[in-house]
Design goal:
With 131 residues, this protein is of the alpha+beta class. The protein has 2 helices and 5 strands, in the order αβββαββ. Strand 4 and strand 5 form a beta hairpin.
Length: 131
């Protein structure tokens, strides 16, 4: 299983939703996780490497009514709290050497049309490779 797929399976612990890999659908009530193109690697004299990867979690949700937008904001605030709680509890994605998962950028509206908006939140995962 890829790191992306492990993160998707872990995110389903917040709400049992279908999450696509890499591509956001143009339909309402759809979710996706895409890996961002920058990877940070710290190398240690021991040969270990600490890898930080960033992901963008997106959701296209109904947003025509103000009540929709309020509900969407509450959903994402809950997701951000859940990610932090899971990290604090040690409930992390199934990734070898994982040390941390967290929110790097709070949710925001990336795109909007007449009926839907694409909400986005940045996530990071840090794991160690090597002995």
């Amino acid at each position: 299983m890829t790191i992306s797929q492990s993160l998707i399976e872990w995110l389903k612990g917040y709400k049992p939703i279908s999450i696509a890999t890499e591509t956001q659908s143009d339909k309402s009530m759809t979710y996706a996780l895409a890996k961002e193109p920058i990877v940070n690697i710290k190398r240690y004299l021991s040969g270990k490497r600490e890898v930080t990867e960033n992901y963008l979690f997106t959701a296209r949700l109904e947003s025509q009514m103000n009540t929709d937008r309020i509900d969407n904001g509450a959903w994402f605030e809950g997701l951000e709290r859940w990610v932090e709680e899971q990290y604090n509890l040690g409930n992390l994605p199934n990734v070898e050497g994982i040390r941390k998962v967290g929110v790097t950028s709070s949710f925001y509206v990336g795109m909007a049309d007449a009926h839907t908006s694409v909400y986005q939140v940045g996530l990071e995962i840090i794991y160690t490779i090597g002995d």
